[in-house]
Amino acid sequence: EDLIEEQNVAITLTHFGYIKRLPEDTYKTQKRGGKGITGLTTREEDFVKDLFITSTHDYLMFFTNKGKVYRIKAYQIPEARRQAKGTALVNLMQLDTQEKVTAVIPIKDFNIEDEFLLLVTKKGTIKKTKLNMFDTSRKSGLIAIKLADDDELISVKKTDGTKDIFIVTKKGKAIRFNEKDVRDMGRNAAG
After folding, report:
1. Exposed e or buried b for every residue in 152-164, given b needs 16+ CB within 10 A?
2. pLDDT of 39 above 60
3. Claim: this prediction has a pTM higher than 0.90
4. DSSP secondary structure code for residue 111 in this structure
5. Phi, psi of 24, rounded to the nearest 5 degrees
6. DSSP state, 124?
7. CA atoms of 10 and 8, how far apart (whole Å)
8. Which of 75, 68, 60, 70 is nearest to 158 (CA)?
9. String of b and e for 94-117 (b: at least 16 CB within 10 Å)?
10. What is the C-alpha separation between 51 and 19, in angstroms, rounded?
11. CA triplet 83, 96, 168: central angle to 5 degrees?
């Protein structure tokens, strides 16, 4: 790892699970009337789901619909050309069949005292867990949340324990509450 230069990189992840890493300076500010550049080529009906800037030495946490989390360093994601579609995530992690990544969180340091991950499932379960509970690596993934048989993990956000949470249903209903209303739990808890 010491031989790998620490630099900012852009990571893109598509809906169908293709990921790639590019140097941050691949994307430049354009003047008014700029035409843009191709960020990646996708298969038909695929689209970019996540794009973020992180360091090559930061961890990336991949949360799946099955409630598991996988962790790799950003430099382990293959660098690709600007037009390339990227590498399929199944080549980087031991994902089960029917398992797909629903959230990616870049993490520089796991030992910040007041940092939490907030997880929400399709059936409306919410859970808050201290970030340092995830500071372990296992090739086959860790359980991030215990799910009922017909439930799925749909969203994960990093927070500092003081935010207001706003959740919207697919039918347009919404709820807003302070995250202090959600007590923090262990990694294996159901929420």
Report:
1. ebeebeebebeee
2. no
3. no
4. T
5. -55, -35
6. S
7. 7
8. 60
9. ebeeebbbbbbbbbeebeeeebbb
10. 10
11. 75
Q: Which residue has the tokens 């037009």?
A: 83
What's the pLDDT tens digit per position in 128-181? 999 989 888 787 889 999 998 899 999 999 999 899 999 999 999 999 999 999
Give pLDDT, residue 127: 94
Residue 36 has a pLDDT of 61
Tokens of 155: 């969203």
pLDDT band at 35 (very low <50, low <70, confident <90, very high): low
| Residue 28 pLDDT grade (very low, low, confident, very high; cuts 50, 70, 90) | low
- How many Å apart are CA 30 and CA 164, to the nearest integer? 35
Residues 6+ apart with CB under 8 A from 172: none
How far apart CA 161 and CA 179 sit, in angstroms, is 6
Contact 110, 133 (CB under 8 A): no
Residue 12's DSSP bridge partners are 20, 51
Backbone angles phi and psi of 154, in degrees to 5: -115, -20
Residue 167 near residue 115 (C-beta atoms within 8 A): no
Give the span between the Cα atoms of 103 and 69, in whole angstroms.
Answer: 9
